[in-house]
Amino acid sequence: MTSSDPKLRRRRVDPMDAGSSSLTDIGEEKKKGSWRGVPSGPSPIGHRTALAIVTLLGCITTFYKIWHPAEVVFDEVHFGKFAGFYLKRTYFFDVHPPLAKMMLAAAGYLLGYDGHFDFGTIGDNYIENNVPYVGLRMLPATMNVLCIVLIYNIMRESGYTVLTCSLSAAMYLLDNSAVAQNRLIMLDSMLVFYMLSTVYCYIRFRKLRYQEFTRGWWFWLIATGVTMAMTVSVKMVGLFVVTTIGICVLVDLWGLLDIKRGLTMKEFMRHFNARALALIIIPTCVYLFWFYVHFAILDQSGPGDTFMSSAFQETLKNSAIKMKSLDIHYGDEIILHHPGTEVYLHSHTLKYPLRYDDGRISSQGQQVTGVKEADDNCYWRVKATKDISKDKRTPVRHNDIIQLEHVATGTNLLTHDVASPLLATNEEVTTMEQGKRYNETLFKVVLDDHNNGNIWSTHMKSVKLMHVDTKVAIWTRDKVLPEWGLGQQDVNGNKNTQDRSNFWMATEIKGLNATEINMNKKKEIKKMSFIMKFFELQGRMLRHNSGLTKPHPYQSTPITWPFLIRGISYWSKNDTREQIYMTGNVFGWWLSIGGVAVYAGVMLADTLARRRGVEPIDEPLRNRFISSAGLFLILWLTHYIPFFAMGRSLFLHHYLPAATCNYLLLGAVFQFMFIDGIDSPVSPLEGTTNTKYRRFHPLMMVATLSKYSYLAAFLILLGQLGMFLFLSPLTYGTPGMTVQQVLQHKILSTWDLQFAK
Amino acid sequence: MRQRRFAWSRSPSRSNRLDPLYLDDKIWKAEQQQKRRLSTNIKSFIKSEPAIVLYLTLWSFYIRLWKIWQPGSVVFDEVHFGGFASKYINTGFFMDVHPPLAKMLIALVAKLAGFDGAFDFKEIGLDYEDANVPYVAIRTFCAVLGALTIPMAYLTMKKTGHSTMSGLLVALMICYENGLITNNRLILLDPILLFFTSATTLTWVNFCDKDKNYKPFNLQWYFWLAMTGLNMGLTASCKWVGLFTIATIGLPTIKRLWDIWGNTDISKLKFMHHFFARSLCLIVLPIAVYMAMFVIHFHSLPNTGEGDSFMSPEFQQSLAGSNSHMSDTPLDIAYGSRVWVRHEGTRGGYLHSHPHEYLTGSGQQQITLYPHKDDNNWWIIEKPRNARRRRPDGPGGIEYVRDGDRIRLVHALSSKRLRSHDEQPPLANDEYHKEVSAHNDEDSRNDRESDWIVDIVAHNENDVDSKYRLRAIHSRFRLRHSTQRCALFSHEKKLPEDWGFGQQEVTCMQNSKLPKTIWYIEANQHSRLGKDVEMVNYNHPNFLAKFLELNKIMWDVNKGLTASHPYDSRPQAWPFLQRGISFWGKDGRHIYLLGNPAVFWSSTFAVVGYILVAFLTVLMEKRGIFDLYNESAARFFITGWCAHYFPFYLMSRQLFLHHYMPALYYAVLLFGSMFDLITIWLTSRKKMMLVIMASYCVIYAYRNFIPITYGEPWSQISCENAKWTRTWDFDCVQ
Asked: Which pTM was predicted?
């Protein structure tokens, strides 16, 4: 700071001139009139007018021809259908949490829709099927307009000028991807809405940091927690905004902990506890609440049954599994099915060959294999190894030691320390005549779900057969035996006993008709505690989500998203040559990614310079650039970077929340580049409850707009508007285009528009 | 007029901020003094430093080399790394996921020991003695390198200012680490990797010692810096895990540069000197070393071998005696040309058909990709009957095939046409894949399903013609189906062995992305072209091209190693030693890679302890209590541990316990550092007692697992008793 260039510092008023001695006393400051409360800068009227204008414009871009197309578009297939399930109260399974789908269902309920339509494929007609789709679309579209309002207010509360606020909001309302995505029956506009609300609430909370523990402070803190939970309740992507808030709170707490801040440990713990309550406990309750509602509504058996455990399925009305299930008793002849590879445990009179192709040697025992179709060779009799009463049928329980007899050949299942035919590390499974090598034919019944009743039953309790002698589990995998094994599937003893694929399911008991028996025996609907249901569903959602790896023709990798290398074809109609192709506003997206680069460059240069004792940026400007624009940057990063670590198939629309955050950052960078100064401070010190804060000195500055500011904003908006209008046929799906026009609209050669030939 | 009200106050903390470097130095000096006082007594016991190093080295040789000839058969990954040695000796090109240095060293030792490369190390348990393999020499080489890490660990501890006692403890812990013993005395890459990793650490701490007092740029300074760079390069040339070692050095380097940049007493010019000296030695030099290893690698393997099929045709062209060696082929392609069509996206080879039918879909004759030269690869380009005629535009009245032309491909031996139709292909079961087959419909005139449109998508920059008409090798094209909006496609899925001969599937894919739909013509004959036509062949790739290609393929193959192995494990299991790896078993004897639990668990404890102490220190500083604990050496060791451990969480390939070994090395060093911290108040005598007790525990645990470490006989009872946790699954069956 000693060697700084005078030119760099010209904008800074000398502290002595400004009366630094009097800065210690805020009261005096105020008297002098050199310090004003919030909001500084332009009058609220300017803001109100600008907000009204962008909201109006947002309504126009969002609601324009919202009834077109009157057909199912892209993921409306899923979310329209899910709303229908709520209205029919049948249980379904989806990887997303329930809130947004319930909102859609509520909209449908109010519109009198009964959920009769199945939203089968893209292109199904709504009008013919009598679906109030315009009403359903109104909900997400309204949310989109509210997003615009929120963006404006986030920028306003962060202390930016009317011009900057309007710019950010206008960039968003003219973004093709936001318009295309958020007016359809999908979850994204709800997600973005709650995400932005969280940011807004947190900023309001932050601004009250000198009025700690006042009513307003508590209100905005709890509001942050609630909106955060709402975001997560829409999609798990909401966890990214939780991460952002988490980072901010940690930084904030770290600052509070600083001894120079003057808080005692007791005061600090009070801060800590308040945040823990509002940002951990309350959000958890809100999140759980929506699941409670979810289970309360969906009380009937439906298409989601098969995704859940049998215990869960029993809690639903009319559950099919209850009709099929039977308890297994000693002496029963059962069929064992491997769910992972869809085969049945099988044996036949053929033997393993003495010597395999690779020179290893087998036991020459009878083959045990897996087959795709169950036949008579698939029946296995469960035999007890302990004394059981002869007159009464004894059920097989968890941890019982049993023998399995292959009914057709009268031999017992056995495994031993001989390498299996295809996998030398695993044990060979074979069968043995009665009475021989008894100890090696013993298996322990390990039930997957033995906490809810420990009796082994068909279709309900999957089972792991643990070999007592050598501690391996009977296992099969997607590999078939060569010719000598008739191309049937390899079965062996797996040393990795913890693997999920070790579980088998008994599917049939010979001679017993499950449906008949169950018809006579009336089973009642079982209860399951909410928290158990929740954890089961949550676990399966996460597992299913990471299992969505099936490639899709329109999937893309995260690195291509900000540059819009490829869009997604949402809908097309051959007769009219109309199509909806989801793509962002190329101008806005490239500009905003440029904004990120500018931000990173400025911060890097500033950090390096400061390290050498040069301070090129005025303190209030820098402060705002770090705390406000920095928040937007973290928002963008947390909504973008985690996708790189995800294994599931990803799509361009996953970038939409990040693109929205990027417009916030673009506004902040615009202010830094084209507007001289910043309105500071934004957080009022008046009414502070803590006397220690009186020592703090606000950094004061006023933003000055020049004609260049207006010119730059005008040019940016002109570019955005031009690109928006140019791409609008792809966004609204109308009008249809000729080949020539389609080719014109291929801004990048990698875009795969329909009707280009 | 611009008006601004602006107030600003000077931050009070800035003026009284002490220079951190000055402070560091003072603390360091104080610590040194204290440590020196403590160690004077001990030094009288054991004469001098070099003597200690010598004792340690000899002792670790004994521990590592004990019964090195046992077992006399192939153990675990000796299958691979012994096998590579014989491949180097046979000079046939092969492909492996690891860089070449360690393998070349093994091969060199084998060669010097008189190995002729006849033994192929095909599977675990093959006998060495019958085959006359000098395996003892090779294992001795590996074990010696492994043993040398022990004196280096001791020296590292001493150089970073730790007490002799903690240095000795660290050395003994590494010496008696069963996992390292098992892993280091076999023909594996890990001992060599570990040797260079610890050498890098040692040279780096020496450099830091020279750099500490801002007296840079003298000869010694440069020597240690360059040695660090050299060792880094060698480490990375053994295994890519060496990149983690580079990160371990890189992070403190950046930190140091940041400090220098922040020191306004050092001019910018001098900073640039610091910056470029480090860039040169720590970036340029390692890269040069790494590339040099590949120069030697390519030089040692000039001949064709089993690795050919991984490589591009250009690369194969550079190998001698290659059966896929291409002779020059005419450049121009016209209607009536007999051609070999090769797939660019995969290494599957040539478009192929043979007189066997699909067992699925249409049941027509199969189309596959076949990697070898074969007469069934010949296709003849024909014009559809109803296509528009053009005037012959080539010499001898031939007509060139142009971009956008509709063509038919006729399989030369069976005279059947390549076609696609709305049927499900055998393997790809998405609706956007269509079956491709060879078939002859009687009504060939209207058989639009065998018409394909040539789209040239890339061409040789030096041959402008190849953009507009098809030319051998220079033109890369797609074959678009005329009716189905799909393009001829192939991917790395093999048809079933019994009816598809394990050849690669070919389909026609709609909305396909570029890479896997690109084809080109490799060989070409035309009856009406004379001998004097323009010929073409693959470009001969230069070293850089070969180097980059091989590294890319190594990366891809490495990423593809996702098959599960019965003894693989995930990183979270390693620090707690949850499970080992069965290496070998014969006649009731077993070798099972299991670390010394005392070393594993105590080093993990040290890591957790360090993190707690460091966190507490930062927290206390925030509350105004300074300088609780600040040990730069411990910080370096924890950096090393993190850099060698956490990246494994990002890897989805199969991982094993032995991947933890470099991280373990750093964890043990950190343990030494923590040992010094907690014993700082003890007298040297008490400290020595503590070291002896700790060593006793380590040696006790070591002796417990001698049988599975060296493959010694073991009684079933003591074996069962040695299973301290239920997850250790070594075999006790006699």
From this structure: 0.77
B58 and B27 part of one domain: no
State the CATH architecture for A327-511.
Trefoil (2.80)
Q: What is the pLDDT of residues A552-594, one digit of tens each?
A: 778 888 999 999 998 998 998 888 889 999 999 999 999 999 9
Partners of residue A34 in chain B, C-beta under 8 Å: 5, 7
Contact criterion met (CB < 8 Å) for A699 and B8: yes
Note whether A428 contacts B: Cβ–Cβ < 8 A. no
When scoring A1, A250, A481, A611 by the number of chain B Cβ atoms within 10 A, the one with the most, hence best to mutate, is: A611
Taking one residue from A and the other from B, the number of pairs with CB-CB distance under 8 angstroms is 88
pLDDT in tens, B163-198: 889 999 999 999 999 999 999 999 999 999 999 999
Please tell me whether residues B505 and B597 are part of one structural domain: no
**Cβ–Cβ below 8 Å for A752 and B623:** no
Nearest CA in chain A to B266: A612
Whether residue B90 is found in the same domain as residue B39: no
**d(Cα A537, Cα A97) in Å, to the nearest integer?**
10
* Final residue in a domain of this structure, among B537, B560, B582: B537
From the list B6, B566, B624, which residue is nearest A700 (CB)? B6
Same domain, B512 and B580: no
CB contact under 8 A, B432 and A553: yes
Instruction: Give the residue extent of every domain in chain A.
Output: 44-292+562-745, 327-511
Angle between helices B242-262 and B219-238 (to 10 degrees): 150
- Whichever domain contains B380, its CATH number is 2.80.10.50
Query: A460, A461, A410, A459: which is closest to A432 by C-alpha?
Result: A410
Host domain of residue B358: 329-537
Cβ neighbors of A526 (< 8 A, separation 6 or more) are A311, A314, A315
Q: What residues are paired with A578 via a beta bridge?
A: A573
Question: How close, in Å, is residue A166 to chain B by CA atoms?
Answer: 24
Look at residue B658 and tell me if it is in a domain: yes
pLDDT exceeds 70 at position B630:
no
Residue B256 inside a domain? The answer is: yes
Asked if A483 has any chain B CB less than 8 Å from its own CB, the reply is yes
What is the C-alpha radius of gyration for chain A, rounded to an integer number of angstroms?
A: 33
DSSP A16: T
| Chain B partners within 8 Å of A495 (Cβ) | 566, 729
- Residues in A 184-243 with any Cβ partner in B closer than 8 A: none
Q: How many helices (H) and strands (E) does chain A have?
A: 23, 14
Which residues between 537 and 556 in chain A have a beta carbon less than 8 angstroms from any beta carbon of chain B?
551, 553
What percentage of chain B has pLDDT greater than the value 90?
Answer: 37
Residues B157 and B268 in one domain: yes
* Model confidence at B649: pLDDT above 60: yes
Nearest CA to A566 out of B514, B231, B556 is that of B514
Residue B528 sits in the same domain as residue B573: no
- What distance in Å separates residue B726's CA from the closest CA in chain A? 12
Q: For A730-737, what is the mean pLDDT?
A: 88
8 A C-beta contact, residue B208 and residue B214: no
Task: Please report how the helices A188-207 and A619-640 are oriented relative to each other, as an axis angle in degrees rounded to 10.
Answer: 150
State the pLDDT confidence band at B43, using cuts at 50, 70 and 90: low
Using a CB-CB cut-off of 8 Å, the residues of chain A touching B268 are: 612
Contact B261 A608 (CB under 8 A): yes
Looking at the domain assignment, is residue B556 inside a domain?
no
> Does residue B586 sit within a domain?
yes
Number of separate domains in chain B: 3
Same-domain status, B581 and B513: no
Is A20 close to B624, i.e. CB distance below 8 A? no
Beta-carbon separation of B4 and A704 below 8 A: yes
CA distances to A349, B90, B656 from B591, in Å:
38, 30, 16
**Segment holding A446, helix H or strand E:** strand A443-447
